[in-house]
Amino acid sequence: MKTPIDFLSETTSPERSYTTDCPVWPYLSYYIFQIEKNLSQLCEDDEAFKSAVINGFVTNLAARITNAANNVLITEKLVFEKTTCNKVETPAYFTLVSENKNYLFEIINAYPELDRVLTKLSNNFVEFTIQLIKAFVDDRKDISTKFNIPTGAQLSAIEVSSSETHNGSRTICTLSFDSIKVIYKPRNLELEAEASDLLLYLSNAAGDDYQNWKIPRYLVKKEHGWSEHTPQTQAESEDEVSSYFKRAGFLLGYCTTFMATDITSDNLIAHGSCPIPIDLETIFYSTLNIDTIPKEVRWNVTQTSILPNWTWKGTDGIGVDLSALGGLSEQYVSLNLYQHLEDENGHSQFGMDGVKIFPNQNVLYLNGKPALPWNYEKEIIEGLNTLFSVVCNEKASIIETIGSLRGRRNRYIPRPTATYHYAIQCSLHATLMRCTKKRTAFLENILNNDTAPAIGFLNAEIAACLDLDVPFAQGQTGALEFYEPRYDGCGYLDSNDYINGIDNSVQYVKTISKNRIAFEEKLTANTLLAMRNMYEHGNKLTDHTFIQHDDLNDPRYSSIDAIINKIRSSSEINSKLINEMLSTEISSNGLWLGFHSSPGGYMEFSELGDDFYYGLSGILYGCAVAASRSSAVDNDCYSRINQKLSNKGTHLGGFHFGLSSAIIPLLISLDYFCDERESELLELYKRYVEDVLTEPWWQKFFWGSDFLSGMFGTLNVLTHLFSLTKDSHFSHLAKSLYEKIETELSPIAGKKLTSFDNAVTTRSDALLSGLSHGIMGCAYSLFYFNALIAKKDSVNELFLGFLSWELDEYDEAIENWHDYRKRSASSAGEFSWSHGLPGNYLIIDYFAKNGVQQAIDFLAKNPSTTVFSYCNLEKRKRPINDSLCHGAYGILNIIKKLSPESLNDPKVFLWSNIINLSEQNSKALRTKTADPLGLWIGRVGALIGSIALIEHDYEFPFLPHQMKFLK
């Protein structure tokens, strides 16, 4: 039997010639050779048909095997360049490989796993091609009838989708018959067709605005199916846009009622006035059913994936929008992926970097511009309510319909498909492509964690990813069991924790009420509002606008007393609003949904979480400081933390994000409220950290290495817990973590430094400047750890290396540090606590007061009184929000600490926009304002920031060592 390698021989070649620039062309030749043997038996002598089939499949296979071989080929390219001392561009090198058969043979022979994968893909494509041709020949008459294909129309082209594959490299295909196109799907479409019929029935019952909805027709067969092709088309008028979003709201209600998830940008087509769902196989999805989680959190409109949302979050805490109504523009996701990188000169290298994601066919355009869903909130909510109205009017018949669909084949998604994509891409690393056993172990290491809900499915997941397939968990509606049809794996969901989608949908319909509909409506409105702020980031963060260049000599605020009185008045109103939000918006049943923002100002609306930065522990800490307590917050926040500490798999993170970030603010708050659970909290945290530090892959519990959410941040937490409790156990844990951090450091620029994700920084050395994400924050962590615990010259030397690098980065031309984050729009650097001069000066001042000569010398040359004077501030970009992290209250409180005399100048306050922003705090009507409650960005932070300006004896703790027990 011939193998792909045999086609490197001069005497062996397929009958059909095919021109390709694929460097691993023998696998294409092998595919053509194998498929030609079968084609004559399946479709006689129809040469046009054969060409259409082979061209479609070969084009797709060429792209897939080139991508699979890419890491190996670029690695070999680098070896070639070093051994020949000759730089060569990637296309030229690929040509060299493809034309030099002996060289290509040596490469393939050196990477047995690569040969196995490429051979497997080629064989899978042979099977897939035969499967499609047989289905087409058998179904041709039915296809013509169902989709109105004229008699005599011939197959002119086949386009194999470039999207993810399942079940042995299977994916959807588009068959063209001149102007008519039909979609082939290599799976049973019975449930998808019935779900589409149900949507059509309900929309016709909803009235004129929802009738004539274009829904694809289906031809259902046992193991495959055909559907109508509907192209993306733009709206022709504003009326069509309005109709589109009414239907989108109706679809949102439909998917919520019938537990349909994964309706992402890949699975919706914008077709004029019709949003067309094209993949309803995940309808009646099994969901969590845990009593400790409110039912509204277990399932709601946001979990359909239709509403704009942020996922795939990288180390900068910012994700991408893959929703059915979102993804409106080019996006960058900072998930660090090992990949082939090429600069503008064609020079190649391998490294870690993020990826770009482009708009999909889900985006509706009008006059060439995307229609913004948040501008059509009214229409979306009208459609949502219309669906719920139809459901309420026809409860009995709908429940009967749901019951009739029990037992249909459906798909369960055990974990986000992004996890599989990430695992597969990383496993193509050249070192792993030499050995199947090592690559298998690598995939197991990535996929074997306690966060995946599927029980017993791991081996099937690994087997699928080995062959570059995304695992396909096939189940039945109304059941919690599923299996992998190709890779012989079975899994299930624990019936104590999950409910099947049929029963859950019946419950949803039975119990739907005005309150539940109002909740879904509010969730929809707030999600759209948050996403509007996200997409408009940089223009404004709320609907309250102010003049950037207003009168800094405003006579109304010519005295400090007048300004402080204004802040005091705003603070009092803000305090009342916070108490109202705590009692009404944060529920006593544990349902905590709200606005929150990343350090970059990117806003979203979802569960608040427990983080110090914008979550419950920070809110609780701020309320304790302000002595405005909500009895619900401390109890439930503690129970959430307790639960996470008892379930391995949660990120520790750093000082502001992750489980670690919640411990100190929660400890201080529990102490303030005389809560006896302090010791239990600390013991749980100790055990959790111990377990993490014994993990072989301990790094996965941190988002990188930085102060904000990385391992240096947790080092700060452990160090400060030792300071607060004098418990030597925390000292030992800090030392253990430091020893592990040491192994992560590498020589850079003549110093031993930690690097950051290439996906986040523009620097080739992967370094960043600043407090929250950069070297300065890590320098602080080292100094504090050494001063309190380590007390070693070696740690001090390491600290001085970090500090000297950061100080050397100060640019006198801009009187600031450059911002090297890829997302930063400012070449002159940020000016806030989190990034740039103010935060760095806080730390430098701390070092100087503790006798660090480099810091003393730096401040002598660049004194705080100068950089925070009004003359200097006038050159800076004025704050556009009132946050502590990167807004007005943060800047003013840093000035209070480092240059208090500057606050004697009213213009400094006016420059900060605090007067304009304090008016925003006074607004009781917040229906159109993305209004976070959190500490570092939000109302609680604004309250604490104002208290610190009003009360001279209170200083906000910007750095960990400043956080003390409250009196």
From TrEMBL:
Any single Pfam family the record assigns to this protein: DUF4135
Annotated SUPFAM superfamilies: LanC-like
Domain Lantibiotic biosynthesis protein dehydration: 111-472
Annotated GO biological process: carbohydrate metabolic process; peptide modification
InterPro entries associated with the record: 6hp_glycosidase-like_sf, LANC-like, Lant_dehyd, Lanti_2_LanM
Record-given protein name: Type 2 lantipeptide synthetase LanM
Taxonomic source organism: Pseudomonas khorasanensis
Classification of source organism: Bacteria, Pseudomonadati, Pseudomonadota, Gammaproteobacteria, Pseudomonadales
